[in-house]
Amino acid sequence: MPLNLKEDEMFNSKITGLGYYVPENIVTNDDLSKIMDTNDAWIQERTGIKERRHVVKGDGDTTTSMGVKAAKIAIERAGIDKDDIDFIVFATLSPDYYFPGPGVLVQRDLGIKTVGALDVRNQCSGFVYGLSVADQFIKTGMYKNVLVIGSELHSHGLDMTTRGRGVSVIFGDGAGAAVLSRTEDNNTGILSTHLHSEGQHAEELALIAPGMGSRWVNDIIADNDPNDESYFPYMNGQFVFKNAVVRFSEVIIEGLKANNLQAQDINMLVPHQANLRISQFIQKKFGLQDDQVFNNIMKYGNTTAASIPIALTEAWEQGKLKSGDLVVLAAFGSGFTWGSAIIRW
Ligand code: ACO
């Protein structure tokens, strides 16, 4: 493993394949209004969401299986074989098991040889964190092709009653994947990534349930009431919103400055799909046109670690990412964690 690499000894990583998978089952705002006190107007006005996908219980889809479906598409589009994958990074907040994480399940289900598999637990920033990890491994020459997956199965763990409406209307299920490959051209691919965290606000968007997590190891799980609201995610929505708009902006500016670039240089911003109002705020702040910011939260809700790779794949499929374009990814979420990636497509 080379150490103290000089610039001319380093490589760039480039996204060579993208794929996504969402379950077929569409849940509209009107569907939700039948099971809780909410309505289409409130949800659209506050979040921009019209519908989201939910896995139908018992149909076999899991966080891992959705990730595998997205990964197969990404690998095929990258024009490589699964055995060319040198490393797997899997980002999720909704793993199939408490442990082991989904990374090893992907290695098994795709029949990839015994390469390393890493699980990333950074919620909405998970994909940007995962991309950054993959990028570092490729930059230093350690790996040639890294598979990065973001996948979430939220719907089975949400409080689908009026009590949980502030959170449950927002989140949806789905998966996205990217193959990062080595390129000798240091002017293209991932130019830089920028990661942050502020654990002081860890409990402002969290799932903290007795029996779940080593902090509660002395509790007897069987004694806990499954209807206890602490079993569902909690979000201090307005506090999270206020922090999100600040941190999104900061980390985009940080990434642009690191590359001597300016907002005018951005061709496409693909923000984590947390709330359409957050995306619109960022768009206005950076003076971007409608066609310079990719949003699909209307169709899928917030799919957390999957949101950026799903959006990136759709943007690519729609021909919105052209060779030479400056593409900026930015995310903020639970932790708090946030990050950006500056990419020359
Ligand atoms: N339907 C109808 N009414 C609702 C609903 C609903 N689904 N949810 C809440 N309300 C009510 C509330 O009870 C409240 O009523 P009250 O005024 O009578 O008390 C009122 O609507 C306003 O509620 P707020 O929570 O203040 O609504 P807000 O405008 O803040 O919107 C939202 C809530 C959409 C959650 C917003 O705060 C938000 O998007 N926050 C940021 C989310 C985010 O970025 N998360 C980070 C990524 S996620 C991750 O990392 C896992």
UniProtKB/TrEMBL annotation:
Reaction equations catalysed: malonyl-[ACP] + acetyl-CoA + H(+) = 3-oxobutanoyl-[ACP] + CO2 + CoA
Protein origin, superkingdom: Bacteria
Alphabetized UniProt keyword annotations: Acyltransferase, Cytoplasm, Fatty acid biosynthesis, Fatty acid metabolism, Lipid biosynthesis, Lipid metabolism, Multifunctional enzyme, Transferase
Residues of the Beta-ketoacyl-[acyl-carrier-protein] synthase III N-terminal domain: 118-199
Pfam families: ACP_syn_III (PF08545), ACP_syn_III_C (PF08541)
Pathway: Lipid metabolism; fatty acid biosynthesis
Gene Ontology annotations of biological process type: fatty acid biosynthetic process; secondary metabolite biosynthetic process
Residue ranges, annotated region (ACP-binding): 273-277
Primary localization: cytoplasm
Entry EC no(s): 2.3.1.180
Subcellular location: Cytoplasm
GO CC terms of this entry: cytoplasm
Annotated InterPro entries: ACP_syn_III_C, ACP_syn_III_N, FabH, Thiolase-like
All copies of domain Beta-ketoacyl-[acyl-carrier-protein] synthase III C-terminal, residue ranges: 256-345
Comment text on domains: The last Arg residue of the ACP-binding site is essential for the weak association between ACP/AcpP and FabH.
Function, as annotated: Catalyzes the condensation reaction of fatty acid synthesis by the addition to an acyl acceptor of two carbons from malonyl-ACP. Catalyzes the first condensation reaction which initiates fatty acid synthesis and may therefore play a role in governing the total rate of fatty acid production. Possesses both acetoacetyl-ACP synthase and acetyl transacylase activities. Its substrate specificity determines the biosynthesis of branched-chain and/or straight-chain of fatty acids.
Family to which this protein belongs: Belongs to the thiolase-like superfamily. FabH family.
Subunit structure, interactors included: Homodimer.
Name the record gives this protein: Beta-ketoacyl-[acyl-carrier-protein] synthase III
Species annotation: Arenibacter nanhaiticus
